Amino acid sequence: MSTTPLPLWTREVSARRSAWYLGLTTFSILVLELAAIRWIGSQIRVFAYFANLVLMAVFLGMGLGVALGRRYPHLFEWVFPALLVLAAVLALSKQVGLMDLGFPDPSISLWGADVRMVSFGQFCLATLVVVGLFWLVALVFLLMAIPVGWWFGQLPPLRAYTYDLLGSLLGVLAFTAVAALHLPPAVWFGLGLLPLAWVSRRWWAAFGIGVILLTGWASQGAYFSPYNRIDLATDDFFTGEGQPPNPVARPEYKLSVNRDFHQHLLDLSTATVSQEPPDALRARIQKIYEIPFRLTSRRDRALVVGAGTGNDAAAALRAGFAHVSCVEIDPVILRLGREKHPEQPYTRPNVRLINNDARAYFEQNHTDQYDVVCYGLVDSHAMFSALSTLRLDNYLYTVEGLRSGWKHVAPGGIMSVSFSVFAGDWMLYRLNNTLLEATGLQPLVILHGYNYGVTFLVGRELMPQTVQATTGFPVHVLPEMEIRIPTDDWPFLYLRPNTVPYAYLTVLTLILVTALVAVRQTFGADLLTSRRFDPVLFLMGAAFLLLETRMVTELGLLFGSTWVVNASVFAGVLVMVLLANGYVIRRTASRIQPWYVPLVISLLAV
Fold it and tell me: Where is the chain membrane-spanning (predicted)?
């Protein structure tokens, strides 16, 4: 009876080399996990809002792969073809109609991905596509984790876990460096695939070259920040309205983030606008941007929150402000504004650029006062972390977040908040009520409609008649509407009121049912009744993941929703576990129960 020979990486390998290979594999898994989460969200826009689904797929796939690795080491040879299939689906997402996939769930407002009315067939199709992509990702990481399961069976468990953690920590640090350098996806995947190819050393590793080529082809012309895929194209915003090109205007651009429109880079200078008819669209948009900056007699200092590429900063300069501070979380968007904006506001010596989370800037600069605090159209198209359902801007629009911005308004100054209310009137009233609660003053509302937007104005000296006479726009005072407003304890600005997230719940139910089937097939039908199942370890693992999620959101609130905070949390957790594992190797505790006391105390302290 013939037996299939073991793969090369399993044959006569010393314990030291097995540990080395284990670390290389977990390094690759961490890099490719982070790469997959980011790239999938930039290729299929709905996944930019549901990065946690990708993370769940990765965790599930790795768990199944580790369990299967001891019995089926040959499965590892399929990881490179499977990853190539996933890369092909993502690279061709636009051609096959996945890029613009909408998520048929009315409970969650997704800019550019809202689905108002769908048939039952469309609902089923969208749900199956999301679940299908979930399992394709899970399959890739199942195959990737096969060697981890094999080597865990060849080494003492705690020693194997040490190298597992070391590889994972180095993977997080390496991907953090790649993000800091704003390198493209081809580099992410090349960094992750190279160690896997070294471990495999078989011809099928050549499929990895195809993965790198596909990611490079799909990313042509795009910029990649630590948060977003950014595409910049020549803008036809004004000429598309039937107006001839303005010969005075400099080149203008349209900037898209994660496949969705994000902002225009517009030339709204006085010289350009004066060349067009008085009622032209360009002149109207110029007036909209200048609304907050024309309403105060003191024009010394202005702060623009969510400054983007510089349209609001340019408006403040045109209005005569002596100093303008611009806070923007995305460093690449700031750089593109400096290089490409036709009015060049970011090159002025009286303009200060601050690359930071706006909420963190407010908390870290208590004494700064401004005549105008202007919130640009800060509508994030990405999640703060795959461990969280929060977007980058969620903590900015809570009662506490707006209150921290209001504290920076100088006496006689105003705060302006612009926002898209494409989602519906509920968003308009939610923001109005939140501002009222945060400032104690009734906001004045201008429904200008630019990018489906409105502008809220708050100031102790603002009067509706004066605002209307100065800006030329009708001013509204909205009645209070019974609607839940976001707070730091409930920061869900985009959650539509009085709805049930049935599509999201359907997806999670299908994932849970299919995952239970996969776990049963992998571990056996008697898993829950056999001694192999450890309920204490199971509950500790669930608690650990919940605690890590809490750390991400809490530290984001304290230090800003930035990629540096995310990387610090992930690296810190891995270092903590690595130290604990090393302690247990050297000093095995005879009784584990006493350790629960400091654990409970630390949790209560948090």
Answer: 20-40, 46-68, 75-93, 120-153, 165-183, 203-224, 502-523, 564-585
State how far the Cα of 314 lies from the Cα of 371, in Å rounded to an integer: 16
Contact between 178 and 186 (Cβ < 8 Å): no
CA atoms within 13 A on the CB side of 554: 8
Structure-block tokens of residue 542: 């669930």
Which token pair is 33? 């996990």
- Residue 382 DSSP code: S
Structure token pair of residue 479:
């009645």
Rounded CA gap, 574 and 19, in Å? Answer: 18
Summarised one tens digit per residue, pLDDT across range 250-264 is: 789 999 888 888 889
Reported as type and span, the H/E element at residue 122 is: helix 120-144
Mean pLDDT across 151-172: 90
C-alpha dist (Å) from residue 203 to 101, 199, 210: 36, 12, 13
Q: Render the burial of 557-594: b for 16+ CB within 10 Å, e for the rest.
A: bebbbbbebbbbbbbebbeebbeebeeeeeeeeeeeee
126 three-state secondary structure: helix
Q: Which residues, other chains included, contact 166 with Cβ-Cβ below 8 Å and sequence gap of 6+?
A: 23, 26, 578
Max Cα separation, the chain? 94
Q: What digits encode the pLDDT tens for the residues 68-107?
A: 998 899 999 999 999 999 999 999 998 888 887 776 666 6
Phi, psi of 493 (to 5 degrees): -60, -40
Residue 76 φ then ψ, to 5°: -60, -30
Cα–Cα distance list, 3 to 6, 149, 365 (Å): 9, 21, 69
Q: Residue 464 burial by CB count (10 A; 0-12/13-18/19+): exposed, middle or buried?
A: middle
Residues paired with 265 in a beta bridge: 253
At CA 141, angle to CA 139 and CA 146, rounded to 5?
A: 100
As a whole number of Å, the end-to-end CA separation of the chain is 60
Length of the chain: 606
At position 470, the amino acid (one-letter code) is T
Q: Return d(Cα 447, Cα 453) in angstroms, integer.
A: 7
Distance CA 250, CA 238 (A): 13
Q: Could you write out the DSSP letters of every residue in 513-574?
A: HHHHHHHHHHH-TTGGGSTT--HHHHHHHHHHHHHHHHHHHHHHHHH-S-HHHHHHHHHHHH
Q: For tokens 């461990």, what's the residue? A: 387
